[in-house]
Amino acid sequence: MKKIEMAERNNNALALGIIARKSLFCLFIIASIVFIFSWFFVLRSTAPPRFIDHSLLPNSKVMSSSINNGETVQSVLADFEEGNGEREDSSSSPCSSCQTSNSINNNKDSLLKVYMYDLNHEFHFGLLGWEPEGNNNNKNKQVWPNLLKKVPDYPGGLNLQHSIEYWLTLDILASELVNPPKASSVRRVYNASEADIVFVPFFSSLSYNRYSKTNSNQKMSNNKLLQDKLVRYLIAQKEWQRSGGRDHLIVAHHPNSMLDARMKLWPATFILADFGRYPPNIANVEKDVIAPYKHVIRTFVNDSSGFDNRPTLLYFQGAIYRKDGGFIRQELFYLLKDEKDVHFQFGSVQKDGIHKATQGMHSSKFCLNIAGDTPSSNRLFDAIASHCVPVIISDDIELPYEDVLDYSEFCIFVRTSDALKEKFLINLVKSIGKEEWTRMWNKMKEVESFYEFQYPSKEGDAVQMIWQAVARKVPAIKMKIHKSRRFSRSLDRKDTEFRHIPSPNNFW
């Protein structure tokens, strides 16, 4: 009997052992399967996500930039030979000191998509005296001039230096022509949801220059009336409400333009000359774009002058007594007025002033760019057009395209505190010899086209460079819009609509 019980126990133990081994084997199989599937999902997660609408992603041709070891890597505008579309060798690029976007071609997908409001002509070309023709039922033709017939003229003189919105608007309109200009960074679209940016065609600088003074029978200037009307128009638009204005682009290049509207429209991206009259929560280098002035000095064409052919060592002509940060001008005047080979005099556009300044800059080795009422001035871009090495004395200056362009290769920067030391500035410029000056002079001639405004626009000119600077802001703009929509489903719809301007302290 005991033998039988012993046998049964042995059989049971054997059976349990077999079951245990089978269970362990099954667990091993299951664990292996789970392990294999987990790696499958991990690897799959590295592939491009399928839930992204790739039509919303900014095109790499427009947004591209490369950084290597913390330094900007040269990425030049690729030129295409006419007729065969072949790219020239990058070693022949006219700009070896800067990084720019890749060549802009006729592929529509590579262009910055811009939605432009059809504002009444009083906001743009109407300020130039242009009037719509007849009772044309075509809204687009009623609002905009026919560029094939005549391009409305912009007023000359100092008005031109802040004419940025004029050139950008013309470039958008030109993109719609049957045979658009070959050089193009933008394409106009009529569905704002397809756009990278929403452009507001208000000639704000011209409005300030011409209509900021009130008449005897006016309580408010026409400039302020236009700004007020623009604000009311924009915040009522579904395009503004959808993004809170974050994806809107407004040009306010004159430091005094948009002074009334900016506090209400600040979520938009501004194109400015500098940030001198803007609080940092309204405008800053992370959010906005700095554009060059249009120079008023005549471009030095076919410049063969060298170090020895420019007799004036250091040149400045302009307003000497300024307010705010411009106090340094009068201090430098007293330090430099008796120095040999230095021209430091008062000057204006009156009495052939521009012609005299052109001659003076074209015959000078170094040209002073000193802070005025605001950190920037047109004098820097006059110096570049004259191939006169700029000496920049403005501690708070922001420069166009500085994320892709190294200004230290063709400009001298001096701190205000150093410039006011006796003999510091004059000794500094005298220490720069012929070889170093010639290198900077050559660099200036390589980049001068980046500051040329013209219609039609040409590849690598100021219009194209500004559009590409805007394009580089688009990813950050889209990220902020996407973040703002995180909790939209959990809130009441009325609370999520942007019918009021949010506080700048918590908007970004």
From TrEMBL:
The chain crosses the membrane at residues 24-42. Residues 110-427 form the Exostosin GT47 domain. Coiled coil: none annotated. Pfam families: Exostosin_GT47. Keywords: Glycosyltransferase, Golgi apparatus, Membrane, Signal-anchor, Transferase, Transmembrane, Transmembrane helix. It is a single-pass type II membrane protein. InterPro entries: Exostosin, Exostosin_GT47. Residues 91-101 have a biased composition (Low complexity). Residues 81-101 are annotated as: Disordered. It is found in: Golgi apparatus membrane. It comes from the Eukaryota. The keyword Phosphoprotein does not apply. GO terms for molecular function: glycosyltransferase activity. GO terms for cellular component: Golgi membrane. Belongs to the glycosyltransferase 47 family. This is Exostosin GT47 domain-containing protein. It comes from Cannabis sativa (Hemp). The lineage of its organism: Eukaryota, Viridiplantae, Streptophyta, Embryophyta, Tracheophyta.
